[in-house]
Amino acid sequence: MMSATFVQLVIISLEIGSVYVLFSLGLTLIFGIMKVVNFAHGQFFAVSAILVTILVPFLAAHGLPVLPAYFLATATTVAVTVMIGWGVYQFGLVRFLRDMEGAFILTLGLAMLSDGLMLSIFGGAPRPEPVIVPGTVRIFAVAVLAQHVVVFGAAVCITGALYWSMTATRLGKALRAIASDHEAAMLQGIPYRRLSRDGFLIATALAAIAGALMAPISEVTPAVGNDYLMNGFMAVVVGGLGSVPGAILGAMFIAVIEAVGGYYVGPSAATMAIFVMVIVVLLIRPRGLLGRA
Amino acid sequence: MSRQMMAKPLLGAAALMVGGLLIGGAGPADTIRLGLSLPLSGGGAIWGKGTAWMCDKAAAQINKAGGVNVQGKVYKVACVAYDNKYTAAGGASVAHTLLDRDGIKYVLAMGTAPILATQSLTERQGDLLFNLSWGKATKGPKFPLTFDVFNSPAEIGPAIIKFIAKTYSSAKTVVMLNVDDATGRETEAIMRPMWKKAGYRVLASMFYERGTTEFQPTALRLASYKADIIDLPTLPPPDAGKVLKDLQTLGVKGVKILDDGTSASAVEATSGRSALDGVYMGAAIPIDGPSFDARQRAISKEAKAAFGDPVNLVNISGYDAMQELVAGIEKAQSLNPHAIAKALPTVHFKSFYGDVGFGGAAAYGVNIQPLLPVYVTQVVNGKLVDRAKVAVSGK
To answer: What ipTM does this complex have?
Structure first.
């Protein structure tokens, strides 16, 4: 019979992993298509989370039940965030496609700028989290926040949908062709710039959805995106930059170390263990677990 | 590289430097400026912004009352704030900007790591430092130009432990969780012996890295010790909220303490109301309680509207540092930091809490500590309830 602690750690690993998966998918998508790392990815996440915490109480105060208010707020924030993403791409990133250094400086600068703007507009205090799915559920006699279960379910659905769209749709196939060899793809008539923009906007939407999903269970401050960026980025690096299955594997890898290490050796040592394991993985497989040479 | 290509970045850099000089801390000669090295971004921004706001509030009141009179010359006062990002590197950068570029002689710095970086300059260059750190390592006779501005664990710890011992006589065991940085390590080194001295068994003392997003494994580990008391001395509000929420999900009962808990609303935003219920705080101000009057409540209300948090132990330091400085200058009748430092231990100043003098020789070896009251509060139904007010000894 499995011990309660083991079950608890498995559930915690899955919960944490699903959060990192949600965050990492957009990062890896952008790298796969544009060959750049978007250091402002966390800010899209933060904007969305903050807007949800503003819109849900606003809509609820105007008579909408909480769940519809949450869905409407999520749709609105994703739309707003994608519009911001469009602006970032159109007036910035389009000039730095496949330019790692240029995009690094641009996205880092954007992250700092938007941090300052959000702090000025929304303040630094943690925003009250909307309670969407209250209470706990019992899984194998272990109490789990219902909202965590929702996030896990959403992560599975979103990952599945992304995986399907990448393998079964024309857009997905074209994006994979670009990721594989953008020059060969262009020679086949695939419009690289337009598809890069579409890929970036999909990644932005993923960050926004992740932010909206996390708003009820995570801290909501302008700085929250930066905190998730570190682990999300490590997940992508471990899994292999640009690989969707790699991002999932990397996220689960980090989550298991964080959960098991956090319990048995303490949280600080677990964080160090994550860095050590990332170094070990990269020494053995420099392109990540599922990265291609 | 062509000359034209080189010219652009050079012009940009020049523009930045000129702009920096123009918008920086430069001020008129008849203005006394208090430099503020605060976290204005990241998780600590709520404390930094509040402290800057409270400093401005004190400056406005002092200026409205006629300014500062030094040997017949009247000066205005002003606060100049920069973001130290709560890091040693940020602290060093801000210290150079304030002291070397802006020529400011008096600095209030927040956070142990930024203070360590700032203090190495202020003590060497002969500038006055108001210390807003949780530890003891940066206070004492070795630092004659450094003064405290608020109650830290050396004052809060004994008050809370005494209250807990009296209220929960059957509690015997404690587990602690701190952030793994200079603040957390120093605080742990202060609090852990205090618990032991009071007769408690510290079952475990854990640390976590700032920026941690998931606290479920930590909560599970905390719960596994089945301690009577869970002490969280240095957790910022969002982290404290997450830990409390996860502890609640695990069904953990027992006494929970946020020694640095500055307000119920900031923690409740993440924890939810029920997880915070019954938690004790050491740095919150029961502004609606009998210890405070309408004037103080009005400032708190204004603060809440301005930056989202009511007045608390931390942000009041912005107000008190300015008042300490002005009292020291008026007593010394000099702008010289050494003269002010000599005068400060003997002055009484108009603290946010009321008329306050200095003490603290027993804890720090010198009288650098303003003798502020410690409030032990408990969160009940989302509201702070005043449980004990302890006067800090002047010795």
So the answer is: 0.88
